[in-house]
Amino acid sequence: MDKEIRKEAIRKYLKYFRVWFIVAGIAVVLLLGTLVLKIKWNNRTRSNTEAPAERVFDSADVLTDEEEEKLRAAIAEAERYSHADIVIVTVNMPMGVSDSEWERNMMNCADDIYDNGKYGWNRAYGDGSLLLDNWYEDADGSQKGSWLSTSGKMENIIGWREEEQVLDDMYEYIDYDPYRAYLAAVTRLRDLGRYGSDSGSMDLTGVLGAFVVSTIVAAAYLMININQTKAKDTTTAGTYVQGGVPTLRERSDDFIRKSVVSHRIQSSSGGGGGSSHRGGGSSGHHTSSGGHSHGGGGRRR
Q1: Which of 4, 119, 274, 279 is the most buried (most CB within 10 A)?
Q2: Which residues contact 284 (CB under 8 A, 6 or more apart)?
Q3: Model's pTM, two decimal places?
Q4: From CA 220, how far away is CA 17, in angstroms rounded?
C-alpha cells in the first residue's frame, strides 16, 4: 500500500510539474546550442587584411623596446578575445592651448590615424578603437592628455562612461609607468569588446544556465521532499473522514496586537544626485574627415 501511495504521489508531482520539465528540456537544448554558437563565434578569425599588423606607435618615445613588444603581445591576445582592433599611439606635438581647440585636434588626429590605417577587426574602418596619448608641454603650459577614437561595434559599446573607465584605468599609472598605464587601457578595452558595457544585458548562456540549474535543484528538492513527507506524515487519508462523510475542523486566525499602517514611501528619483565633471569632452557619434563613422572622447591630464 505504501508503495502504491508513493508511486501515486510521484505521478502527481510529475504531472503537476510536467510543463516545467518540458521548459527545462527546451532550455537545455537552447543552452547547448548557444554554447556551440558561442564557441564558433569566439573562434572567428580576423577578416580585415587591409590594415597593417603594427598596433603600437610610440612616437613620443615613452616606452622601451621591451615594453613595446610586451604591449604588442598583450594587444594581440586582447584582440582575439574582443574581436576588435586596439591601437596605441603616443605623440609629442601641440594640439591647442584652449580646451575646445585641443579636443578638436586630438579627435581629428585619432580618427585620421585609424582611417589611414584602415583598422577594424571585421573589415577596414570596422570594429576597433585607437588610443592617442599626447605628451606635449611647453612654456604656455601642458597639453598632455588622451583621446579614444572608436569605430564599428566599439562605437556603439563605448559611451562617455566607458571612455572615463578607460582613461581612469590608464591615468592611475601614466605619470610614473606608461607601459602599465597602456596595458590597463588595453585590458579595459578587451573586456568592453568582449562583454560590452557594464550596463549591458546579461549573457544568454548565463541566463539559460542559471535556469537549468534552478530547475534541477527544484526537481531534486521535490523528490527528496516526497520521502520526507511520507516519513513524517502522521495524518492518513481517513483522518478527516468520520462515518464515510468528510469533516473539517474549524479554523480561525487571530491577530493579536496587530495594526496595519499605511505609509507613503518618498521617491528620490527626481534629482539630488549632483552633477559630474568630466574634465574633457566626448565627441559622440560623428563623421571623420575621411567620411567614416566614429565615436570617442578624451581629456587632459
Answers
A1: 119
A2: 295, 297
A3: 0.64
A4: 12
